[in-house]
Amino acid sequence: MKPVYIVESGMKFGPYSKDECFSIEKSKTYEEIQQNIKMAEFMLLRSQQLWIIEAKSSTPRPETQPNFDIFIEEVREKLSNALSLGLALCLKRHPNDILPKFPT
């Protein structure tokens, strides 16, 4: 199977198998709910683990960024929203998308 690469924020992630990668931002479910919803880029399902990936080309340092707490809160919100979406997809609450199956 052809490997999948994901390019976000000037970074290239992969290679991944198509069967283990779910691009949240390209999903039909996210297209329907995206207005005012902050979201991570993609989910990776590997070895009985769920990885939620948020790509940032730069991260401020706490001592040099006056709004560092706001930055961290935005990342937390994206990860939390992605986890909630992933759980909803596992529970089949959004029939437009299907998560890859965890490898056994």
Overall number of structural domains:
1
Helix content class: 25-40%
Structure annotation, total helices: 2
* Estimated share of beta-strand residues: 15-25%
Q: What is the general shape?
A: globular
Main beta sheet: 3 strands, antiparallel
Q: Uncertain spans, ≥5 residues at pLDDT below 50?
A: none
Can you characterise this structure?
The chain is an alpha+beta fold and 104 residues long. It has 2 helices and 5 strands; from the N terminus they run E-E-E-H-E-E-H. The protein has helices at residues 28-33, 68-90; strands at residues 4-8, 11-16, 21-23, 42-46, 49-53. Strands 3-4-5 form a 3-stranded antiparallel beta sheet, with helices on one face. The relative contact order is 0.21.
Provide a brief overview of the structure.
This protein is of the alpha+beta class and 104 residues long.
Topology record:
Elements: E1 4-8, E2 11-16, E3 21-23, H1 28-33, E4 42-46, E5 49-53, H2 68-90
Antiparallel strand pairs: 1-2, 3-4, 4-5
Annotation keywords:
104 residues; alpha+beta; 3-stranded antiparallel sheet; two-stranded antiparallel ribbon; 5 strands; 23% strand; globular
